[in-house]
């Protein structure tokens, strides 16, 4: 069971996200309905660690084995999406892919179908795309990770 609940027009979501950098490029994804990009990952399940969740999500979404290299930060995020006010707590991890993947700046789909679009983007090009959380752009550039709060 995902750690996620809704009350009227508000939703709480507990998420694990993967910072995957290969050849100077960051793996990002977006829903086909959205015009913004985010990190790959997904909801943490009840009684599941964030590390286990992020590895599971990479396997489910991309069919790839992965391992967590290190914990990076906690992100408390407050945003509105499709007329629902979200309160999201995200655990962000540096993740290494154990399987080979072609690093391409072209869009590609994962193994779950055509709902999510993936792409590797050169880190120095992140400022040119709509990517959330915004603070992550700076942290990736500087290598300095901190507790994120966005209200």
What does this structure look like?
Helices cover 15% and strands 46% of the residues. With 151 residues, it is mostly beta strands. It has a single domain (4-150), classed as Nucleoside Triphosphate Pyrophosphohydrolase. The strands form 2 sheets. Strands 1, 2, 6, 7, 8 and 11 form a 6-stranded mixed sheet that branches. Strands 3, 4, 5, 9 and 10 form a 5-stranded antiparallel sheet that branches. The longest helix is centred in the middle third of the chain and has 13 residues, at 50-62. 23% of the residues are buried. Its cofactor is Mg(2+). This is NUDIX hydrolase.
Layout: helices, strands, pairs:
Layout: E1 4-7, E2 10-19, E3 21-22, E4 25-31, E5 38-39, E6 41-43, H1 50-62, E7 66-81, E8 84-97, E9 108-109, E10 116-122, H2 134-142, E11 148-150
Parallel strand pairs: 2-8, 7-11
Antiparallel strand pairs: 1-2, 2-6, 3-4, 4-5, 4-10, 7-8, 9-10
Can you name the CATH architecture? Alpha-Beta Complex
Q: How many distinct helices?
A: 2
Task: State the name of the first-level CATH class.
Answer: Alpha Beta
- Write the H/E string, N to C: EEEEEEHEEEEHE
Overall body shape: globular
Strand content: over 45%
Biggest sheet architecture: 6 strands, mixed
Average of per-residue pLDDT values? 93
Poorly predicted ranges: none
Instruction: Give me the secondary-structure category.
Output: mainly beta
Q: What is the H level of CATH, i.e. the homologous superfamily?
A: Nucleoside Triphosphate Pyrophosphohydrolase
CATH topology: Nucleoside Triphosphate Pyrophosphohydrolase
Indicate the radius of gyration in whole angstroms: 15 Å
Portion in helices: 10-25%
């Amino acid at each position: 069971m995902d750690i996620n609940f809704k009350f009227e027009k508000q939703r709480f979501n507990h998420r694990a996200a993967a910072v995957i950098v290969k050849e100077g490029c960051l793996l990002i994804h977006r829903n086909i309905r959205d015009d913004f990009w985010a990190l790959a990952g997904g909801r943490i399940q009840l009684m599941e660690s964030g590390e286990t969740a992020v590895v599971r999500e990479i396997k489910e979404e991309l069919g790839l084995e992965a391992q967590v290299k290190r914990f990076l930060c906690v992100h408390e995020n407050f945003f509105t999406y499709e007329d629902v006010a979200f309160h999201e707590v995200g655990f962000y991890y540096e993740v290494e892919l154990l399987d080979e993947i072609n690093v391409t700046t072209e869009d590609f789909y994962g193994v779950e179908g055509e709902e999510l679009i993936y792409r590797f983007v050169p880190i120095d090009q992140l400022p040119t795309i709509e990517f959330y959380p915004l603070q992550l752009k700076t942290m990736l550039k500087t290598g300095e990770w901190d507790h994120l709060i966005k209200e």
